[in-house]
Amino acid sequence: MSAQDQKPVTEGAPFDYIIVGGGTAGLLLANRLSRNPRTKVLVIEAGGRDNWIWHHIPIGYLFAIGNPRADWCYRTEPVPGLNNRSIGYARGKVIGGCTAINAMVYMRGQVQDYDTWAQMGLSGWGWDDVLPYFLKHEDHEAGKSEMHNSGGEWRVENARVRWPLIEAVAEAGTQIGIPRVSDFNLGTNEGSGYFQVNQKKGMRWSTNAAFLRPVIDQRNNIALLLKAHVETIEFDTSTDNGRPRATSVIVSDDFERKRFVARKEIILSAGAINSPQILQLSGIGPGELLKQHGIDVVHHAPGVGENLQDHLQLRTIYKVKGLKTINETGWFGKGLMGLDYMLRRRGPLTMAPSTFGMFTRSSPDHATPNVEYHIQPLSLDAFGSPLHSFPAFTASVCNLRPTSRGHVRIKSRDPHAAPAIQPNYLSTEDDIRVAVDSLKLTRRLVAAPALAKYQPEEYLPGAEINTEEDMRVAAGQIGATIFHPVATAKMGVDSDPMAVLDGRLRVRGVDGLRVIDASAMPLITSGNTASPTLMIAEKGAEFILQDNKG
Asked: Is residue 316 within 8 Å of 442, Cβ to Cβ?
């Protein structure tokens, strides 16, 4: 046992609901569950406050990812499909979670994503079922329409910056059959266009800004603990129905350990990495894994931590001539950017990691778009590294529907120790095929007349990579996460032994416990995952309130 474990546990105040994780899903839940002034809600967040300037200026992602002030700086296990490389796995370390450091891209996904969930037996999760929950919290700058809403908390605006290079990429796309579209959020996201982003007047719009900050001082029934780790969930195993019931959590910070009792429910919203970790530490997970670490098995749930899915991005980089990129912006240019931002809230400092996107098919074998491009008028070796000194752009392409499956597993009983993260990228022939086809497609795009006139030179993976085998190896060398881990505590039907949750997000085999975050997805969505996670939280809040009436 650690020295922390030896500290005595004192009793904290009881709450109706305890939400573990003040990130993407957790803060929407806190907002919804605290609307009733008689309901007491506790939010526990292991990170700190979002009081750093780069949490709010959009281009701050360049400085936040990989920085221990903003990022837990997890790393994967060596990944065989990535040529045994271990890669960084960013997770937000502040209130607002990953929405404080992410790409800010507003993306719902495709009709097919959710209709497939429904076809798997998850009634109520088809596209027509979930669309109202996207709309419920949306505040779109274009106002209310059939497919968008206004007046909600989750602000959606159009990009505030344009680059001639981006327009050239868009034109090249049309030349190879990728049409321009104005909105990726109508159910089919095929085409190319500027991303809609979660910003408000040029500032990042995190879930803290949207759902917690506006209400926490007005509602005296919300308590927030920061820099506090949940060590374990406690269960009553002597219930009348014989099912263990989640009753309390043990929380520690630098000074003390406390027990907080939940009168109604405990909700895990710690994300696709930490929610399964906490379940395992609490005795819910694969029995052999728990026994290996000396943890009593409360409920054998083999699916906890399994089924990890993520979008692997292949970051291809091309040098160009005769086109300006952010790379060669000097100090004077940076000063002008800063001035433009201060005066008008416009310009490159408002730029999301990727301003422009493309959804298309890597080959004719796919019925709907299966790859997504993030186009950036800049290049760098990795997030947190300096920009290159030469003019270049990045065409990052990811497989939207990977068939590779990874896992998240504790490596010790220490709640402060990072779990083993193994995404198993490129572990199936289908995923390797999509990767190779994506590299070929990118070369077709860059060779189109609209870009060819700027003499693009392939910097990564390199023009010398030509054979199928070389491309397989190159995909493993340049591949990295695009930060969309999901599905590690998936919803599923009764007959699925790997389903951790039922269709109402309740943990199977126990009472009083739900997981409401990206872990719950049975299959990854076709695009950026923050807003689908908010939709899950919106539905989850409704389930909780319905199930706890009276």
From this structure: yes
How does pLDDT run across 514-525, given as a tens digit for each residue? 999 999 999 999
Residue 105 assigned as binding residue: yes
Give me the catalytic one of 55, 148, 311, 484: 484
Is 172:449 a contact under the CB 8 Å cutoff? yes
Does residue 89 sit within a domain?
no
Instruction: For residue 450, give Cα distances in angstroms to 39, 147, 172, 371, 438.
Output: 59, 33, 5, 21, 19
Q: Is 192 within the bounds of a domain?
A: yes
Residue that finishes a domain, picked among 438, 455, 481? 481
Q: Is 104 annotated as a binding residue?
A: yes
Residue 158's domain comprises 127-203+310-407+425-481
* Burial class (CB within 10 angstroms; exposed 0-12, middle 13-18, buried 19+) of 509: middle
Q: What is the pLDDT of residues 243-295, one digit of tens each?
A: 999 999 999 999 999 999 999 999 999 999 999 999 999 999 999 999 999 99
**Does the annotation place 169 within a ligand binding site?**
no
Number of domains in the chain: 2
Q: Verify that 371 and 455 share a domain, yes or no.
A: yes
Q: Which residues pair with 406 in a beta bridge?
A: 308
Indicate if 148 belongs to the active site.
no
Ranges of beta strands (E only) in 391-486 are 392-399, 406-409, 420-422, 457-460, 479-481
Is the overall model pTM greater than 0.85, yes or no? yes
